[in-house]
Amino acid sequence: MPPIPTAELHLHIEGTLEPDLAFALAERNGVELPYATQEELKAAYSFSDLQDFLNLYYALMTVLRTEDDFADLTNAYLARARAQGVRHAEIFFDPQAHTARGVEIDTVIRGITRALDAAPETYGITTRLIMCFLRDESAESALETFEAARPHLDRIAAVGLDSAEVGNPPSKFREVYALAREAGLKCVAHAGEEGPPAYVWEALDILGVDRVDHGVRCLEDEALVARLVADRTPLTVCPLSNVRLRVVDRLEDHPLPAMLDAGLLVTVNSDDPAYFGGYVGDNFTAVRDALGLDETTLRTLARNSFEAAFLDEGTRAAYLKEVEGWTR
Ligand code: ES4
Ligand code: ZN
User: Fold this and answer.
1) Which of 12, 19, 137, 219 is most buried, judged by most C-beta within 10 A?
2) So what does this thing catalyse (predicted)?
3) Residues paired with residue 200 on neighbouring β-strands, in sequence order
4) Has residue 328 got a pLDDT over 90?
5) Which of 8, 57, 190, 214 gets mutated to test ligand 1 (max ligand atoms within 8 A of its CB)?
6) Would you state the pLDDT for residue 116?
7) What does pLDDT average to over the chain?
8) Taking every pair of C-alpha atoms in the chain, what is the biggest distance, in angstroms?
9) 10 Å Cβ neighbour count for 146?
10) Ligand 1 pocket list (CB less than 6 A)
11) What confidence score (pLDDT) does residue 7 get?
């Protein structure tokens, strides 16, 4: 059975760092990891919440130091994504997680874009790059990061907001989002993962986001659901992530069917696939099996991903045709 063609819209490139590549890069760069073996590292992949995961995520990415490292990481993701049906990927990166430890933003962007530039030919995948601000860092740091990225804005499609949500509402980043919009960038933000519906309202009304990342907690607020449906604001849902970070207890309890029933423009994505047990095709298979989704629903989810993508209309139409042509 060929995988269903999809666009992946919620994917942290640092979250694709698999244990084998992490150890290889640690060796190559002379970085000491606090784990002796891959088995010892893998034992740390049981998370109690978002912060618990973020601690490992930031610790492991210290092996990423050179332009080649970022290109290798990105190529490894693209190869796996292609095997799982991804035709278009909109990829987050966290510049502050690298600049804070002395890796220049130019190094990060050059490495990632080297792989992305070759991706249509090498993997048959089109891409966009989304620069995220760490919401647990200051608003000033986000502004500095945006200015440091200015020479590269032609390579950046959108800005996003990630890291520890609770206590760091979208309103904190009003200014940098205004600058991003002035510069012609699209805007997205993580909201309503661990944080309350009020954070989703702020992302919409204060940041003016074009998509909401996660957003699963919107279901707690009827008026918010009505707003998201009326505006057709896409939500990039990450089912396996939600289970691993204990946003939901079990995949069988995931609100994805309720979100679809409410008329929300929902997509399925992998978030940090090296940490959460699967890439986008694995997420599709898991929700199909746990939630009993039929072929029509899977096709709707795939169609939604291309509707929600930052694509020109010709390319979008071509991808939608691929979805209609897919047979299990
Ligand atoms: C993230 Cl799952 C998740 N949530 C918020 N920030 C993140 N950064 C990487 N993965
Ligand atoms: Zn995420």
Assistant:
1) 12
2) adenine + H2O + H(+) = hypoxanthine + NH4(+)
3) none
4) no
5) 190
6) 98
7) 98
8) 53
9) 22
10) 12, 15, 50, 57, 162-163, 190, 193, 241, 271-272
11) 99
Domain boundaries, the chain: 6-325
**What's the CATH code, domain 6-325?**
3.20.20.140
Query: Which numbered atom of ligand 1 lies nearest the CA of 94?
Result: 8
Q: Is 20 annotated as a binding residue?
A: no
Structure confidence by residue, pLDDT tens digits, 114-144: 999 999 999 999 999 999 999 999 999 999 9
Ligand 2 being an ion, which residues bring their Cβ within 5 A of it?
Answer: 271
What integer is the mean pLDDT of 136-159? 98
pLDDT in tens, 318-327: 999 999 999 9
The two three-digit tokens of residue 255, written as one number: 């609100």
What percentage of residues in the chain have a pLDDT greater than 70? Answer: 100
pLDDT of residue 1: 72
Is 39 an annotated catalytic residue? no
Instruction: Report the relative pairing of strands 86-93 and 6-12 from DSSP bridges.
Output: parallel
Using CA atoms, how far apart are residues 263 and 301, in angstroms rounded to an integer?
12
Instruction: Give the rounded percent of residues in the chain with a pLDDT score beyond 90.
Output: 99
Separation in Å, CA 10 to CA 7, 175, 235: 9, 23, 10
190 is in an annotated binding site: yes
Q: Which of 53, 188, 242, 245 to mutate for ligand 1's pocket (most ligand atoms within 8 Å of CB)?
A: 53
